[in-house]
TrEMBL record:
InterPro entries: APOBEC/CMP_deaminase_Zn-bd, CMP_dCMP_dom, Cyd/dCyd_deaminase_Zn-bd, Cyt/Deoxycyt_deaminase, Cytidine_deaminase-like. It holds the Pfam family dCMP_cyt_deam_2. This is (rape) hypothetical protein. Its cofactor is Zn(2+). PROSITE patterns: CYT_DCMP_DEAMINASES_1, CYT_DCMP_DEAMINASES_2. Binds 1 zinc ion. GO terms for biological process: nucleobase-containing small molecule metabolic process; pyrimidine-containing compound metabolic process. It comes from Brassica napus.
Length: 279
């Protein structure tokens, strides 16, 4: 396992096979066990660069399970943070000997990443492992294309929402604004971003990633927490002392929920939210 227990983009495996993934799963399992009280599932993805990325289930302490971050969502944030434009192959396992389909929630979430339908998922069937395209696992998915224009960049592709802040000064506001500008929110038109800072002064940002099916959407705070886990290799969320959120004024505000979550998992953390303007 690479530094911070998350595979760096420089590490590679020769073949994305169940056999080769077994040792990776074994290596990653101790971290996965520290992030969740449930059976830990690990998502392993190969990007179009052939580099390998990991995702883990992350429970948020003292909050209901539906606030948890799914391993597949963690993986997508990891890909985004490494500017990986496409997820080619995906495997999900908790022991390396059996690979499962993504959960239904994440099958829908993955539809909106770049070329999502083409993702090859490694599934262990009674006859042995085989790859299936994601569209076979959710053939009648809610389609983003029925509701938004084709020129909206998918998740993993570069975007700039063109948001600005009045009196935008200070590194926290600037970083949260930059995260909001990378946010994917074509259904609500309510992009948002968060920046966190820990006691050591390190900062972690996250962008809201929306799903046409609503519930699978990943909030900006959870996205920033993924980058905190990637960097620290754990969930010592109490070390987070600053949280700043930037969003647009809309009927779908993130601020109250983000504030509730961060104050629950990091009681000493300050929280401030600002409204951005669309240019
Ligand atoms: Zn899932």
């Amino acid at each position: 396992m690479e530094e911070n227990f998350v595979l760096s983009p420089t590490r590679n495996v020769d073949a994305f096979s169940q056999q080769n993934l077994h040792s990776l799963i074994t290596e990653a399992t101790p971290l996965a066990q520290s992030l969740t009280s449930n059976t830990p599932y690990i998502a392993i993805g190969r990007g179009s660069s052939d580099q390998i990325y990991l995702g883990f289930d992350v429970e948020l302490p003292d909050l209901p399970l539906n606030f948890s971050i799914h391993a597949e969502q963690f993986l997508v944030v990891n890909l985004t943070s490494n500017q990986e434009p496409k997820l080619r192959d995906l495997a999900i396992s908790n022991d390396g000997s059996h690979c499962y389909a993504p959960c239904g929630h994440c099958c829908q979430f993955l539809q909106e990443i770049n070329k999502g339908n083409e993702i090859q998922t490694l599934i262990t069937e009674p006859t042995g492992p085989r790859f299936m395209p994601l569209e076979m696992l959710l053939p009648q998915s809610f389609s983003r294309y029925s509701t938004i224009s084709d020129d909206v960049p998918d998740v993993l592709l570069l975007r700039d929402n063109g948001l600005t802040l009045k009196n935008s000064y200070g590194v926290f506001k600037e970083m949260a604004l930059a995260a909001a500008n990378r946010s994917y929110a074509p259904h609500s038109n309510a992009p948002s971003g968060v920046v966190l800072c820990d006691r050591g002064g390190k900062m972690y940002s996250g962008s809201y990633l929306e799903s046409v099916a609503d519930i699978p959407s990943l909030g900006p705070l959870q996205a920033a927490l993924v980058n905190f886990v990637i960097d620290t290799g754990g969930r010592e969320f109490k070390n987070i002392v600053v949280a700043v959120l930037v969003e647009t004024r809309s009927s779908f505000p993130q601020a109250d929920t983000a504030k509730m979550i961060i104050q629950k998992i990091a009681p000493e953390c300050s929280f401030n939210a600002y409204h951005a303007q669309s240019s």
